[in-house]
Amino acid sequence: MLAGDTPLAHRPSGPAWGGPALGPKAAHDFPHLPAVSSTQEIAAAAARLIVDEGMDWGPAKQRAARDLGLQRAALPGNDEVEDAVREHIAIFHADTQPAELRALRELAAQWMARLAEFRPHLSGAVWRGTATRLSNLHLQLYCDDSKAAEIALLDRGLSFDVAETSAGKGRTVDMLILHAPCPAFGERVTLCLTILDFDDLRGALKPDARGKTERGDLAALQTLLDSDA
Length: 229
Fold this sequence. Notes:
It contains eight helices and six strands; from the N terminus they run αααααβαβαββββα. It has helices at 24-29, 38-53, 57-67, 78-92, 97-114, 124-128, 148-155, 218-228; strands spanning 121-123, 137-142, 161-166, 172-182, 187-196, 215-216. It has a six-stranded mixed sheet.
């Protein structure tokens, strides 16, 4: 559960640099270059779609494979795509992404304080540090009554759409989608509120295979903001 490429006058070819992927002939012509696997090509192409067009990860992988003519190839895992996203940001967006990430994290903190009764946790690219101004803001809300969050938003005069999203293990839950003003961008940001049970809080902060947590509460987010101040 869970962002327009800036062309450069000259840059090396290869998926990590945003250029064309090296095929077998190119690899033969340039033997000093490391071989690039199909999953690496897909990951790099997906990273461009995620960062530069704001696509979600799943659709970005599928489109990248299709655009590269690699529909039958194994798709990269999320860890490989995240590495490619970080590389793409470092090469093409290093001058703008940190400020955009901070603006989104500050906006997230405001909404988490506003929805404190639902024990909000931040997840997705804004939490992981790979967000740009095109990224959606994902908050997970925990409550006994799945309609409680909807009522709270209506009481605040806020309009929203309701969709379904996967919560794992074949379970779907409601997602409330709002368009929240972001003063730093001068435009609205898509805010996705996933409604979960209190029981889902157990193990919510369990680290992944890389030792990173997939979400954090307001205190954890404030620590990130303070460390970047």
